């Protein structure tokens, strides 16, 4: 059984790491963008941000004044037991969020949608969001925190099968141009695209693609992986760079995730995980061990399972 105090302590550490430390995969992608960028203002922004990241880590301060909306992704092995159960888990994550808001500190961004009241701690009705995933076997829990911007840099459109790949490209470019010209995202960014599902799951797929995959990863479907590479190059060919200035590095990487959808539609969402790609991950074991990492490893074969069973399952082996 996993101790609840270890979960809460680990969650607090993750909040600190996500706000302050840039994941190595994203930092490498950003450094490559800085080396290849030739737009004057875009180059200036990239260099300033790289210096800011270094200073943030040295001074243990949040890398960006707007620390976004903290959210949690929780994945656990099938045999996992948590002290106090799932209610205790959620309470621990809410406490860690509130404590980190005061301790890091984070900007208290969460308010009531109508009355604009807040508790000054990023906790409220439905906040922070907590999403769950499960894996066959094992007694462990992965805690993943993402500090995602909560205003812009996201769009959705109901496409149709007849729109095809060209229609997907048009909406993708429409979104990137709008993000850049209207200041709706902080580029360069990891772009996540969700295709299919229903309207709500399409948005979830796109956000997870942006926030839970590392730079350089590829979808296991070779045709989708080819689209990801094409879309990265396409996004960097529109003449926009950092913060929408003239340049050629708007997209650090493009990740695409799909879900089966209604036969008559082809839902699509586009999400920009901003210039401060804030995520941190830890795995907690029943014996109290904690392993920190930066790759969420969310999209496993089980998460992408296409049939009734999943690759390597006992049922599949029996058949």
TrEMBL record:
Q: Which residues form the Fe-S hydro-lyase tartrate dehydratase alpha-type catalytic domain?
A: 10-282
- Signal peptide range: none
Q: Which InterPro entries match?
A: Class-I_Fumarase/Tartrate_DH, Fe-S_hydro-lyase_TtdA-typ_cat
Keywords per UniProt? 4Fe-4S, Iron, Iron-sulfur, Lyase, Metal-binding
GO molecular-function terms, A-Z? 4 iron, 4 sulfur cluster binding; L(+)-tartrate dehydratase activity; metal ion binding
Q: What is its EC number?
A: 4.2.1.32
| Top-level enzyme category | lyase
Family annotation (NCBIfam families): ttdA_fumA_fumB (TIGR00722)
Which family does the similarity line name? Belongs to the class-I fumarase family.
Protein name listed in UniProt: L(+)-tartrate dehydratase subunit alpha
